[in-house]
């Protein structure tokens, strides 16, 4: 299982979500941390950034090292790539 760290901005973004959306995002992060499964893609133009898709939400993260990820942002798909 990977450890998950959050940037302060990502914590604020997570706390601002409605309960249903927050549960969806937290479940996707936990599933990825435990199993490595999820809709993950490497982002173009950003060497280390990856995104995990959870419904309409995009979770941008990087690997801190092989056993840890750092969540950078949690944004709606309309805003995630701007």
Structure in a nutshell:
The protein is of the alpha+beta class and 82 residues long. The protein has helices at 8-15, 19-35; strands spanning 3-6, 39-42, 50-54, 57-65, 68-76.
Question: What does this protein look like?
Answer:
The mean pLDDT is 93. This protein is of the alpha+beta class. It is built from two helices and five strands, in the order βααββββ. It has helices spanning 8-15, 19-35; strands spanning 3-6, 39-42, 50-54, 57-65, 68-76. The chain is globular.
| Major beta-sheet overview | 5 strands, mixed
Q: List low-pLDDT spans.
A: none
Share of residues in strands: 35-45%
* Spatial order of strands in the largest sheet: 1-5-4-3-2
Count, helices: 2
What is the rounded distance between the termini?
A: 31 Å
**How much is the average pLDDT?**
93
Query: Mind telling me the C-alpha Rg?
Result: 12 Å
Helix/strand class: alpha+beta
Query: Which geometry do the CA atoms define?
Result: globular
Order of helices and strands: EHHEEEE
Annotation, overall tally of beta strands: 5
Helix content: 25-40%
List the helices and strands and how they pair.
Blueprint: E1 3-6, H1 8-15, H2 19-35, E2 39-42, E3 50-54, E4 57-65, E5 68-76
């Amino acid at each position: 299982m990977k450890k998950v760290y959050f940037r302060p901005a990502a914590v604020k973004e997570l706390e601002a979500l409605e309960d249903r959306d927050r549960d969806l995002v937290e479940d996707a992060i936990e599933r990825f941390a435990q199993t490595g499964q999820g809709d993950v893609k490497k982002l173009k133009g950003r060497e280390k950034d990856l995104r995990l898709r959870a419904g309409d939400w995009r979770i941008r993260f990087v690997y801190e090292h092989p056993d840890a990820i750092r969540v950078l942002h949690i944004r709606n798909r309309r805003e995630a790539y701007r």
